[in-house]
Amino acid sequence: MNLYPLLRPLLFSLDPETAHAVTLKLLNLTHRSGLSSWIYPTIEDKPVNIMGLTFKNPVGLAAGMDKNGDYIDALAAIGFGFIEIGTVTPRPQPGNPKPRLFRLPEHNAIINRMGFNNPGIDYLLHQVTRSAYTGVLGINIGKNFDTPIANAVDDYLIGLRKAYPLASYITINISSPNTQNLRQLQQGDEIKKLIARLKEEQLKLQQEQARYVPLVLKIAPDLTDDEISHIAQLLLDYAIDGVIATNTTVARDNIAGHKLANETGGLSGAPVKEKATEVVRALAAELNGKIPIIAAGGILSAADAQEKLTAGASLVQVYSGLIYRGPELVREIGQGIDGF
User: Fold this and answer.
1) Is 176 a catalytic residue?
2) Which of 36, 168, 175, 176 is catalytic?
């Protein structure tokens, strides 16, 4: 039963950040009331095996929707093949000043400059332990805003160590445009040093805990061809387990003239679709099937998801599409894609 078209006008009458909170609370209420199985139809399993993990279907929830792990079970009931929570930082932080989230319905797009607002990794991990979810759970980690870039690896190491026992995989987010200088970590020697140190720690944790947790790198759509090639080679050199392409874009060419075009932050939704797919295609050519790609960016239909899979991705993640299409999008993609 698709109730979202009825709810959307009400939710869109609220400011975006309030609507986000209300939506999650409604999902949680639905789940706790035992109505999820009635409202959300069962999605046929289409297992995907990558990174040593089995994803029950290739449609995942991108990080950012449930930053703190408060709604894992309610979101899982929609039918996702996997869920990624975060981005989480070592210490609590408030994020950027409000307003920091903007809808552009004319473009099926969102601009956000949230700034990794979260109560810290210890809170998130506590929420994970309270969840009944047994599927694939990714934990997306970042650095605190006031940690100098020169010391960023220390924050990522804290996140990696703390998340390791509870995560199915861990995503290294170095591509958000909303933490000052963070994207610098994608360039030159910075990314090499970061990846090398995190890979070393991952292997150490594997020995200590007798459990291997894959490491995934999330990159921006605004990279040059040379930067994509450089990153792909580092992924291969250091045997990183996967890559997410892509995060939000800072480009505004696809929304030029819109009244919100000059708002700072990352643009997601339909305007980033082509750019994100180009990055997937470029990565696929460089990686040659040796490292799986998880595609995100502008997926608002089964056709959009199929485009990403055809370009070389093994899985897809949705976020903005969920805001514009509702939970029905997950079922549509799950039933509409080929090749699984």
Assistant:
1) yes
2) 176
